[in-house]
Design a protein that fits this description.
Radius of gyration: 20 Å
Helix content: 25-40%
Bound molecules: heme C
Number of domains: 2
Largest sheet: 6 strands, mixed
Distance between the termini: 39 Å
CATH class of the largest domain: Mainly Alpha
CATH architecture of the largest domain: Orthogonal Bundle
CATH topology of the largest domain: Cytochrome Bc1 Complex, Chain D, domain 2
Strand content: 15-25%
Structural class: alpha/beta
Number of strands: 11
Number of helices: 7
Shape: elongated
CATH superfamily of the largest domain: Cytochrome c-like domain
Length: 242
């Protein structure tokens, strides 16, 4: 179960209102069967998809993947209903091309349906999100992890977002043991690159710990998750060694 912050909880409670608004705009049959939680879909899109895709209503500007407004604009012009795009997006989330840059399992079950419903609702829709949907903004993550006694812990986001709980870290020169607990079911590891270091930790999930031992000297390094697509999506940060 994902932990929800207070404003998001309110958003979930009020989701019915947003859905009523969607209903009023007339959707065809959907993979979500009309019971999607759009605020949840937007929140997940912003944190797990936005780093790679442009979607104006979500304020995302990623360019690794196709522009989702642009992709749907063409489909709309060709006369496809929004429900088609919901199905396309849902399939893409569950079965991305394994040779492409889009990671699998970014969202599953009802979460995947909620993201698909939000993308289909928002893509190429003029104007801005209002009300509950407007209240959902990406949380800024400026936490700095500090090494103690040659140990540095940089845990993965427990709710499965493609990020660590710290976006930067500091340590002293010498031997450094880097650990990263990953409570989520999406696999992650901890890896470190820079100044001659290039070390990848074991890939773990469901509460296991990824670990590497490195020797660092003063300078800047990058810590990141080496699971394909995760670093691109923003799962990285800078380690400064003094
Ligand atoms: C690491 C980058 C990355 C992330 C994160 C990512 N995508 Fe993608 N996405 C891509 C790339 C690259 C493609 C095109 C290649 C392919 O189909 O795999 C793509 C394709 C798509 C398409 C098909 C668009 C079209 O016009 O064919 C959709 C829809 C989509 N992504 C939605 C999502 C959603 C929803 C999420 C979050 C759950 C997401 N993406 C997360 C990189 C990403």
């Amino acid at each position: 179960m994902m932990r929800l912050s207070a404003p998001i909880k309110t958003a979930v409670v009020l989701a019915a209102a947003a859905l009523a608004a969607v209903g009023a705009q007339g959707c065809g049959p959907t993979v979500s069967g009309g019971d999607a939680n759009l605020p949840n879909g937007k929140k997940l899109f912003v944190s797990r998809c936005g780093a790679c895709h442009v979607l104006g209503r979500a304020g995302s500007k990623g360019v690794t993947g196709p522009n989702l407004d642009g992709a749907f604009q063409q489909a709309l012009a060709d006369g496809f209903p929004r429900s088609t795009y919901e199905g396309v997006t849902h399939r893409q989330i569950l079965y991305p091309d394994t040779k492409g840059a889009m990671p699998a399992n970014l969202a599953t079950g009802q979460d995947a349906r909620d993201v698909a419903a939000y993308v289909a609702w928002a893509a190429a829709r003029p104007g801005k999100d209002t009300g509950i949907l407007d209240a959902i903004v990406p949380g800024l993550n400026q936490v700095v992890a500090v090494a103690k006694g040659g140990q540095l812990e940089i845990d993965a986001d427990p709710s499965g977002q493609l990020k660590y709980l710290a976006s930067a870290a500091t340590a002293s020169a010498g031997t450094l043991v880097l650990t990263s607990v990953n409570k989520a079911s999406i696999p992650h590891n901890i890896a470190l690159q820079g100044s001659g270091v290039n070390e990848l930790g074991n890939i773990v999930q469901n509460g296991k710990t990824s670990m590497i031992t490195v020797t660092v000297k003063p300078g800047k390094y990058t810590f990141f998750c080496s699971v394909p697509g995760h670093r691109l999506a923003g799962m990285q940060g800078t380690l400064t060694v003094k």
